[in-house]
Write a structure and sequence with these properties.
Blueprint: E1 2-10, H1 13-22, H2 24-29, E2 34-40, E3 43-50, H3 53-60, H4 63-71, E4 74-84
């Protein structure tokens, strides 16, 4: 399992959410199985789960992601990283 993490600040959460939601078909087509959005005002951390690193990287380079980010009202460049599961514990 690989998690694509995207951290950025947006001008307006509702505008961002509309652009993010519209890009769901692209996420799914690259194998994404779920996502989480963590929010502190307009500072966002998005966690998107993929079966493997190749699928996560494929999505990250998909032109539709850049287009969605362009519509989302980002303030500055996003910080994008790929993380592999080290441990998962449910309480």
């Amino acid at each position: 399992m690989t998690t694509l993490t995207v951290q950025h600040t947006v001008a307006d959460y509702d505008q961002w959410k509309e652009a993010f939601d519209s890009n769901e078909p692209a996420r799914r087509s690259h194998g994404a199985s779920q996502h989480r959005v963590l929010r502190d005002g307009t500072d966002l951390l998005i966690l998107i789960e993929f079966p493997d690193a190749a699928q996560a990287q494929s999505f990250a380079s998909d032109p539709s992601l850049k287009e969605a980010m362009g519509r989302a009202g980002l303030q500055g460049a996003p910080d994008i990283a790929f993380r592999s599961d080290a441990e998962s514990v449910v309480y």
